[in-house]
Description:
Elements: E1 11-13, E2 29-38, E3 41-50, E4 53-61, E5 73-74, E6 78-80, E7 85-91, E8 95-100, E9 112-113, E10 116-122, E11 126-132, E12 138-144, E13 158-161, E14 167-174, E15 180-187, E16 195-198, E17 211-213, E18 219-227, E19 244-251, E20 257-265
Amino acid sequence: MKASLPKSFEWSLSGPLIGPKDDSYDLAGIKDPSIIEVDGVYHVFASTAKESGYNLVYLGFTDFDEANSATFHYRDQIPFEPHKLWYLVYQNGNAAYSTNSDISNPCWNLGNGTWVDMWTICDSSDCYLFSSDDYGHLYRSQTSLGNFPKGMGNTASNVYSTGDGEYLFLVEAIGSDGARYFRSWTSISLSGTWTSLADTEAHPFARSNNVKFSTEAWSKSISHGEMVRTKVDQTMAITSCNLRYLYQGVETWAPHPGHLCVLTGNYRTG
């Protein structure tokens, strides 16, 4: 029997795992992570924050406890199976993407611009680009599988297929206490109506009130991250019974996002 998503969520949180190195880049923080596991190696792409602006960093590692020791290659990624390429979708003042035939190679082609927080997912016939803004609006564009990455139209931040005929939609929100958290909805179709799953402060997908800290409660906000996936294609599939979420933690004593950490689900699926 396939595992289904739970109706409520509880998480355990690691301590800070990935943060700025003591090097010449002098970063204030690392944020906006995207992650995929390929052949036992975790590949992480993230934004780097410093006084002069934002940039990108890539790192690869096999153990989260040793992640910050990995080499940082300073420079939302999915492989598009029909093209045999990896697509790194990001913002550069607009929406942009770069491609690479080898995810472990830190050299990507120059960005091609076509909003903030873009997310791409495909079903058997179409590709959908979801985007959100800082005012609570959510947008969706789509194009045919054969026409990707061109032809985006029809305006509709994470969307995943769960393997049981359902899609999980995660959206970051700001709580009444000013801290960030995640709300969730489900649908049987990427183009269909979304139904509430865990979407309030009292009943959230992930918020400080349903997280158990392994160390001190160092981050009250849960902001901009991605599920750890092992299936390598454009369907963005996850396993409902083994949810892990890499996100940017905002230290309670610092005004900027500083480190990446991992939520691990503590529940039984139906």
